[in-house]
Design brief:
Blueprint lengths: L2 H36 L2 H22 L2 H7 L5 H32 L4 H9 L2 H7 L1 H9 L3 H24 L6 H17 L17 H31 L2 H14 L1 H21 L3 H38 L6 H18 L2 H7 L3 H22 L4 H27 L3 H6 L2 H20 L5 H23 L1 H15 L1
Helix pairs in contact: 1-8, 1-12, 2-4, 2-5, 2-6, 2-10, 2-11, 3-7, 3-10, 4-5, 4-6, 6-9, 8-9, 10-16, 11-14, 12-13, 12-15, 13-14, 13-19, 13-20, 14-17, 15-16, 15-17, 16-17, 19-20
């Protein structure tokens, strides 16, 4: 694929991923608000605990084969068929295992309902395994449109299902059944990409390099999953379910920019870098541009959410969720660093250094849980402080690894940060000044003033101080529109 065709594929990916993410984000916000007003914080807490076990097994089910197959220059039909059956058989074994162990896991948290929740949630494992190869086919062809539209459809089905169930008194099961229904729809749409039923064959010899690369990725994903949920796991052991629910909801809302905006860049970055990994100059340029535009979008959203959280939470979720406000504000600040670092492992994996990705996640899996164990002794806010102490160390560690791999220097990296940081700080200052001296306790009026003010001040600061970058952004938007 020549450079022009590659550029077109990447822009097409951003266009489709971007527009579907905007639509999905809008629906997700509405759904979260509607369902959270009906369900109790304890419901979110118990589902968050069950998600630790099922989510980890879902990572194992993939075996890293999706990433390994996408990263390979050539893939044979036998390798593809072998990967399909290996993942499916493993998912069935893991389903049976978690079904049998559910009572023991539930007794650990002294919750009877957790048994059924874990068992029903485990159906996600065989469902997830069925889409591994179809997604691989789409990503190798860089068919971002198919993937974006399919995932959007699944999210819409999940959202509609959850609202209907919540309004019909399904209670905590709303959060389980709606996800299963949405995933079933996604699998049904993906499967036709395989065109035929895979031949039942498992060629271990031909899978050797795929297994090695995939093992690095699988272990990295397992460690990442464990690490990113270690806070919920540890809080669940030491604090009441209501506090787990508050933290879980706060984490979910504050992480939406990472899950939606950051994931958009990650989904394009890995397959794109995998296709150009031999050209480190092109890889370096792609990372710098992706990092720059990721921050341009995510930073003002995170800071904006932090500033308006007090009005937004009380207005939309009612007073019962008031303890969320300081949690969301703290996590939004932390996520400024996390959103910058989240694309880096995908670039390293794209250039074939899955071993470096594993090294980073090994360190994360040790440092963060230890920090959480210390922090939880001081309550929920102690966990938040532990994030701020431990994560910056991890961020600079992975930045150094990436810089060594692709030849990234400090000046080039800062060029992707300075315009956004400066403009975001000016936006923050203008909104805080207005809120402090001109606004009162009318939440609706406050939001009507602060949201437009934040948007205008950010764009104006960017335009006045960084005109060249603004011209590049306008040019990029024009290309995306085309």
């Amino acid at each position: 694929m020549n450079k022009q065709a590659m550029k077109k594929k990447i822009l097409t990916g951003f266009a489709w991923e971007g527009i579907t993410k905007i639509l999905v984000q809008s629906v997700t916000w509405v759904t979260t608000i509607v369902v959270a007003r009906i369900l109790a914080p304890e419901d979110y807490g118990i589902v968050a605990i069950s998600g630790i076990f099922i989510g980890l097994l879902a990572v194992i089910t993939d075996m890293g084969f999706m990433s390994a197959l996408v990263n390979k220059d050539e893939v044979t039909q036998e390798q593809q068929d072998s990967a399909f059956w290996l993942t499916l058989l493993l998912s069935l074994v893991l389903f049976a295992l978690v079904y049998a162990l559910a009572p023991m896991l539930a007794s650990f948290y002294e919750s009877d309902i957790l048994v059924d929740i874990i068992r029903i949630s485990a159906f996600i494992l065989p469902l997830s395994s069925l889409k591994v190869i179809p997604i691989t086919i789409a990503l190798r062809a860089m068919n971002f449109k198919y993937r974006a539209l399919t995932d959007m459809m699944g999210q819409f089905v999940t959202s509609v299902s959850s609202i209907i169930m919540a309004m019909n008194d399904f209670g905590v099961w709303t959060l389980i059944y709606s996800v299963l229904i949405g995933q079933a729809v996604i699998v049904a749409v993906y499967l036709p990409l395989m065109k035929k039923i895979p031949a039942f064959t498992i060629k271990i010899k031909e899978m050797k390099d795929i297994i090695v690369y995939g093992t690095h990725i699988m272990l990295s994903q397992m460690l990442e999953f464990f690490t990113m949920r270690a806070d919920i796991f540890i809080i669940g052991l030491f604090l009441p379910e209501k506090q787990v629910g508050y933290y879980s909801m706060g984490y979910q809302l504050s992480t939406i920019p990472l899950d939606k905006i950051g994931a958009l860049f990650n989904r394009v970055a890995f397959p794109s870098v995998s296709r150009i990994k031999e050209d480190l100059g092109a890889t370096r340029g792609l990372f710098v541009n992706m990092h720059k535009y990721l921050l341009v979008i995510a930073f003002p959203v995170l800071i904006g959410l932090m500033v308006i959280a007090d009005d937004l939470i009380i207005l939309l979720l009612t007073e019962k969720w008031a303890p969320l406000v300081p949690i969301i504000q703290a996590l939004c600040m932390l996520n400024l660093l996390r959103v910058s670092g989240m694309i880096m492992p995908y670039v390293m994996a794209g250039v074939g250094r899955s071993d470096y990705v594993l090294k980073y996640h090994v360190l994360s899996s040790v440092l963060l849980p230890v920090a959480f164990l210390v922090g939880v002794q001081f309550g929920l806010y102690g966990v938040l402080v532990s994030w701020f102490i431990a994560y910056p160390f991890l961020y600079f560690f992975i930045l150094r690894l990436l810089a060594n791999i692709i030849g990234l220097n400090l000046k080039l990296f800062l060029s992707s940060i300075v315009p956004t940081v400066t403009s975001t700080l000016l936006m923050f200052a203008s909104v805080v000044l207005v809120k402090t001296y001109l606004l009162d306790d009318n939440h609706v009026f406050n939001l009507m003033v602060t949201i437009p003010l934040g948007m205008v001040s950010y764009v104006l600061a960017f335009y006045l101080l960084f005109k060249n970058e603004m011209v590049e952004i306008k040019s990029g938007i024009a290309e995306l529109r085309r």
